[in-house]
Amino acid sequence: xxxxxxxxxxxxxxxxxxxxxxxxxxxxxxxxxxxxxxxxxxxxxxxxxxxxxxxxxxxxxxxxxxxxxxxxxxxxxxxxxxxxxxxxxxxxxxxxxxxxxxxxxxxxxxxxxxxxxxxxxxxxxxxxxxxxxxxxxxxxxxxxxxxxxxxxxxxxxxx
Length: 159
Known about the structure:
Blueprint: H1 2-31, H2 39-44, H3 46-49, E1 53-65, E2 69-70, E3 76-78, E4 81-86, E5 91-96, E6 99-100, E7 115-123, E8 130-133, E9 136-139, E10 148-156
Parallel strand pairs: 5-10
Antiparallel strand pairs: 1-4, 1-7, 2-3, 3-6, 4-5, 7-10, 8-9
C-alpha cells in the first residue's frame, strides 16, 4: 500500500513536471516576438494570412470607440473600438473586441498618431467568419473583401 501511494505521488509529480516543462518551453516560444511584416503583404494575399497571428508596426489612425454590442448568444460586450494601422506600405482595419459579460466604461488604450507594435490575428471573412463593425459583430458575405486584424496585444513604441 505504501508502494502504490508513493508510486502514484511519483507519477503525479512526473506528470506535473512534464506539463510545466511543456508549458514553459511552449510559452517561451510564444513570448518571443515575431518579426513584423508589412501590411501590404496581408492586403496583397489575405487568403494566406486568414486566421494566422502576425506582428505589425505602424501608426494608429481614426480610433473609434464602439457602443456595447451583443453576441449571438446574448452576451453584451463593452469597451470595443476600431482603428486603422498604417505603415509605409498600406493600412489595415484593426478591431479590439473589448470585454464581454463585464460591463465597463473605458477609453481606448491608444490614440490617433501613436506608433505601436500590434500582435493580431488576421481575419479575411470572405473566406469564412465574422468581423467587428460599427453595428457590432457581422457575418461577412462571400463578395465582401473585408480584411481585419483582431488585436491580441498592443505595445506602444518609443517615439
